[in-house]
Fold:
Amino acid sequence: MTDVDGTAVDAAGNPARADEKLSLTPSRQFGSWLRDMDVSLGFSTYQAGKMFLIGRRDDGRLSVFERTFNRCMGMWADGQTIWLSSLYQLWRFENILPAGQSHQGYDRVYVPQVGYTTGDIDTHDIAVTAEGKVNFISTLFGCIAEPSERHSFRPIWKPPFLSKLAAEDRCHLNGLAMRDGAPGFVTAVSRSDVADGWRDRRVDGGVVVDVVSNEIVAEGLSMPHSPRWHNGKLWLSNAGTGEFGFIDMDKGRFEPVAFCPGFLRGLTMVGDYAVLGLSKPRENKTFSGLPLDERLRGADAEPRCAIYVIDLRTGDIVHWLRIDGVVEELYDVTLMPGVQRPMAIGFVSDEIRRILTVDDADWTG
Structure:
């Protein structure tokens, strides 16, 4: 783990030993940026099966809190709620602390209150509509879905190029961008309509689809991920090239803003900044042979696992959080506005048995 000044620390904030299995090293002003923006950071890693919550202590050091969830991927948060997908479940966490109160120095305590058992449908991006409904991407079935009270999920949209709803991961639909409080755009690695066909189109088969019109608004992308609508533009990561940028809707093409030394996945926006997740590409067929390989060689750079903060006005990488050790891949990144130091309750310790709250606002007895 790391101290805000860049010194490696463990989860308790103490200096880390040289043999620590995980270290988080921020740029010098990363913690100050969190303070100035009045946000905390969350990210998921399915490779290590962890959800991390990054905040700041009163003394200026980073606060690092983690919980274990098998293959956790999609993550959405605001100041009160966190949604998180795991291997076969979808969880909703709620903050139980009243405003202005703290628990052991934390100003948010997120408790898992609702869990949907979806089965292993490979849930990727998660978002919440203006009406408060949770939507998510089932990559296995290639659709946008919502929870069902009786079934694994309820499909609400699929791309027009898929001929049927099938558990075959045909196009590797992965990203969901909300616009005006409703699903607006999705990303897919290909338009393949055969089982596992996307793997043959990784280099330049990626597309962005308008959910409302069913039209393809951009194509020729390399494993696009994490579309987000912000300040009137559709931003995303062209992961196979290591580029972050936006879609020029008039020209129907991707306009790069910044190159990052890693496989890009996970994106959230605040003000004039984008917060991205970088992963080290796995040494297998899925991640090998992408344009990113040549870009890294040309930049004389090694791939990183990290969180980058990019200034949208200049394309400069202004802050970062390097992640070294057992965590090499990230999936999602989210921000919690108005939160200084968050924590969450898990299922392994007895703590979840002792956290008791009562909804007595209407109690008259």
Remarks:
- The longest helix spans residues 30-37.
- The first strand starts at residue 22 and ends at 26.
- The domain at 22-350 is CATH 2.120.10.30 (Neuraminidase).
- Residues 182 and 289 are 36 Å apart (CA to CA).
